[in-house]
Amino acid sequence: MFKIPFLDLPPLRSAGGTVRLPGSKSISNRVLLLAGLSEGTTHVHDLLDSDDTAVMLASLKELGCDLRTDTDGVLHVTGIGAQLRTADTKLFLGNAGTAMRPLTAALALLVATQGGQFELSGVPRMHERPIGDLVDALRGLGCQIECTGQEGYPPLKLTGPSALQLDQPVRVRGDVSSQFLTALLLALPLVAQDRPVVIEVVGELISRPYVFITLALLARFGIEVQQEGWQRFTIPAGSRYRSPGAVHVEGDASSASYFVALGAIAATGDPLRIEGVGHASLQGDVRFVEAAQAMGARVEQGPNWLEVRRGAWPLHGIDLDCNHIPDAAMTLAVMALYADSPTTLRNIASWRVKETDRIAAMATELQKLGAQVEEGPDWIRVHPLRDWQAASIHTYDDHRVAMCFSLTAFNGLVTPNAVSVRILDPQCVAKTFPDYFETLFEVVEAHAEDIPVITIDGPTASGKGTLADVAAHALGYVVLDSGSLYRACALAADREDIDLNDANAVAAIGANLNLSFKRGRVWLDEDDITDALRLEATGLMASQVAAHPAVRAALNQLQLNFRRLPGLVADGRDMGTAVFPDAALKVFLTASAATRAERRHKQLISKGISANIESLRQDLENRDARDKNRAASPLHPALDARMLDNSLQTIEESVELLLNWWAETRPFAAQR
Ligand SMILES: O=C(O)C1=C[C@@H](OP(=O)(O)O)[C@@H](O)[C@H](O)C1
Ligand SMILES: C=C(OP(=O)(O)O)C(=O)O
């Protein structure tokens, strides 16, 4: 996950390959609750691992469920068998509607029948998301629920025991969120042992496919709800949650929408294959595929996979009632930018009470890119965009805003003046898809020259590596420690007893280096060479082989391959002058020989290696002289490099300076 304040997406050009979807949020949290209320153990495969499931899991644990994950990632949930084991607990439910609403109903009924007190709260936005219709329905049954903040909204305090009246139908409104009905359906089996319980929906039920998921999963847990249209539901007498044993969670169909759209926009060669959902899916959001097809996508599908290619281009504008796909429909609003006529999405009033007011958020952010957008209480119209502006997209702590706006980075497919897009607070995707951006980068391509590079060159021990690591981390960029490639090449040649003065022999080794970088360690073939790379002796050998033009040429391509999305910070001696001459920011980092010797000395001492500061300084000066005077790519600043002498600076100060210089090169300054 990119835990950084913003993530810049350079212009993207094409997409293709295979994506394996994370588990469905709606299925995961329903299965967890049902397993938690059941007797016995449920083995849950492919559960979503995200913020929304984390709060449900933490709640189940608090309620006394036993949770165990085995080495294959299967979660074993042993439920409480509908018997409360804790009587007084506070639960924090983040911004997960699929946790807050169903847990409210289940715990309200459990405390009513068994006694106790529960307090349920969430993030500030959760306290603005309505729950009044559910609270009213539960109060109508006799549950004691107090809204401790504002009436109709969490936080809630549930107390009991209290007498329940179950002989009349439970009435609940269905036009604000289907999750209120879902919550009652999931929880009322707790009190349907002796008599059937009837639920009547008041008003038009929205987001119906989510209720379908609820009914299907209840059936898997042994509860066959009788349904009369979308108005009346009967939970039969004698209902009891029975664990089905193993449950497999399918991929998330709402998360699939971003990749379906990606295929429709940018899969001009190989298709984009999406694994985890298909025509056999339980989730209504698979019908996003039909909307994408209407806009021009070419889609093939199997029971649990989709393959998407670009069909019509530009896409076609559509006019669609989106009530059945409320979450995935946000993706259509971004696809609309690439269409040939306006797109109108209707019947989406619920967008206003989700993670943010999504109609307002989409309108505001699309307009920042230059789009013309109209909105009404329950609709939005987006016009095609051809004259794009670079924009910094505010994400409102809404995972779907972050994910669907990533698709705007393909603007170069409809305009000659492609622009970058900045996604603020990218880690908000943690709600349902923590690795969204990593997954995206695996299946999209940019022109190499569009991928931004920062180079940091300078003499040995000037702190390039640390500065590069910290800056790359702050920007979410890839790091290239080019020195380590030379060190690895020298080490590999030395291990094969090759004379380091034999330029061609060493170059042949360099061209075939099998290096990998994993979790901060460097591997040469099967060997972890991280520590060997740092030895002074290796450094000296590296300096020797780096003087051969043939070796530098052999390692050049290897270094260019590091120019990967979303950007690169490359440190070395000729990054700005020779390898990445088009880098957007070049820094030449220096420090006095005395300072560098002192730093190296400290470093060695801290590792328990004794060293003499004077001889270190002498070595450094000799090395500087050799690097400056070698024929191939001698060490000198690029003409357009910015000079940074960090002798008197802390790392934090150098990083801040570098990031300020970087900000000056970006087009987002006006919008923060
Ligand atoms: O029951 C569910 O799993 C959901 C129902 C929908 O909410 P509404 O019924 O409030 O539209 C949907 O937007 C949400 O992401 C998940
Ligand atoms: C509306 C959403 O979430 P929640 O389950 O919190 O309602 C969503 O994921 O788009």
UniProtKB/TrEMBL annotation:
Any Pfam family hit: EPSP_synthase
Location of the Cytidylate kinase domain: 454-660
Keyword Ion transport: no
The protein's enzyme class: transferase
Catalytic activity: CMP + ATP = CDP + ADP; 3-phosphoshikimate + phosphoenolpyruvate = 5-O-(1-carboxyvinyl)-3-phosphoshikimate + phosphate; dCMP + ATP = dCDP + ADP
Residues binding phosphoenolpyruvate, per UniProt: 25, 97, 129, 179, 358, 400, 431
Record's subcellular location: Cytoplasm
Pathway involvement of the protein, from the record: Metabolic intermediate biosynthesis; chorismate biosynthesis; chorismate from D-erythrose 4-phosphate and phosphoenolpyruvate: step 6/7
UniProt-annotated binding residues for ATP: 458-466
Domain Enolpyruvate transferase residues, every copy: 17-440
EC number(s) per entry: 2.5.1.19, 2.7.4.25
Keywords, comma-separated and alphabetical: Amino-acid biosynthesis, Aromatic amino acid biosynthesis, ATP-binding, Cytoplasm, Kinase, Nucleotide-binding, Transferase
Binding site for 3-phosphoshikimate: 25-26, 30, 177-179, 207, 327, 354
GO molecular-function terms, A-Z: 3-phosphoshikimate 1-carboxyvinyltransferase activity; kinase activity
Domain of life where this protein originates: Bacteria
Active site feature: 327
Quaternary organization: Monomer.
Purpose of the protein: Catalyzes the transfer of the enolpyruvyl moiety of phosphoenolpyruvate (PEP) to the 5-hydroxyl of shikimate-3-phosphate (S3P) to produce enolpyruvyl shikimate-3-phosphate and inorganic phosphate.
Family: Belongs to the cytidylate kinase family. Type 1 subfamily. Belongs to the EPSP synthase family.
UniProt name for this protein: Multifunctional fusion protein
